[in-house]
Amino acid sequence: MARNRMAMIVSLLFLVSTVAAIVLVFSQQKLKKTEAVYAQTAQNKIAVVNIYGVIKASSKPTGALSPSSERIIKQLKKIEEDRSVKAVVLRINSPGGTVAAVEEIYAEVMKVKAAHKPVVASFSDIAASGGYYVATAADKIVANPGTLTGSIGVIMEMGNFTGLMQKFGVKIETIKSGRYKDIGSFSREMTPEEKSILQSVINDAYERFLAAVIKGRKLDPQKARELADGRIYTGAQALKEGLVDSLGSMDDAVDEAKKLAGISGKVKLVTDTGQLERLLDLLPVGLDEKAVDKIIPETRVRFEYSME
């Protein structure tokens, strides 16, 4: 009796251990398959960097309501260090922005390329001036036929309210440490010497923009200078002039990025949308950047790679 009971217990233990072994084997195989799929997905990541609206640095430590250049640069730095990201698509819908912010993003895109990650620019409604400047760092540019692009140049604007002030009898007294300290003041006419100084500043920034176009698009310097007179082009016109590589959509840009990265099959598109951007999507359409600018005034001098 005892022997029979012992035999039953041994048989039961053997059966349980056998079932457990079978389950363990299948679990390990399933885990390996899952890991293989994950590994394949991880190797096929393409990062999408959205460059929307006016490109500028944040005016406050906490950041402005619109995506700042700091956020874009932070995302590009992450991409540079992430080995699972094999290529980058810059989705650009921007009229440009401030000179320093644009140049910093351009420099960071160049670092991503130096990390052997192909970069493709995809143009939406508009990719002009500073928006186009950033795109010249890409390996390929894909524009929509109706995209507005170009506007290669620099602009600086300052107000002059002397006529209005005279009408209302307003006068401003200025005490300064040097003759050019109040250059661009809205309270007086600008002197020829001051105009010359500011023109030299514009020319300096323009030459850097032009050099980026020549290098990125591999254009003849003379032709590039002829194209870079501030005019805008449609995507179709830009293609004829060699300012973009092809016409197409965001999907076409992703396909181009896959080709450059040597990726076949499906890819995983990843982006870095912060909480602030998700919050902005919930705001009424009327609360845009211009509305915010009324609350947070800009500086009185504009120095921008921007389309008017």
Q: Overview of this structure, please?
A:
- The chain has helices at residues 2-43, 69-81, 99-114, 130-135, 162-168, 192-217, 221-227, 235-241, 250-261, 275-280, 289-295, and strands at 45-52, 85-94, 96-98, 119-128, 140-143, 148-150, 155-157, 232-234, 246-247, 268-270, 302-306.
- The chain is α/β, with parallel strands linked by helices and 308 residues long.
- The chain has a domain at 44-155 and 220-306: 2-enoyl-CoA Hydratase, Chain A, domain 1.
- Helix 2 (69-81) links the parallel strand 1 and strand 2 (85-94).
- Helix 2 (69-81) runs parallel beside helix 3.
- The longest helix has 42 residues, at 2-43.
- It is elongated and about 105 Å long.
- Mean pLDDT is 82; it is low at 30-41, 62-66 and 285-299.
Task: Describe the secondary structure blueprint for this structure.
Blueprint: H1 2-43, E1 45-52, H2 69-81, E2 85-94, E3 96-98, H3 99-114, E4 119-128, H4 130-135, E5 140-143, E6 148-150, E7 155-157, H5 162-168, H6 192-217, H7 221-227, E8 232-234, H8 235-241, E9 246-247, H9 250-261, E10 268-270, H10 275-280, H11 289-295, E11 302-306
Parallel strand pairs: 1-2, 1-10, 2-4, 4-5, 4-6, 5-9
Antiparallel strand pairs: 3-11, 6-8, 7-11
Structure characteristics:
alpha/beta; 2-enoyl-CoA Hydratase, Chain A, domain 1
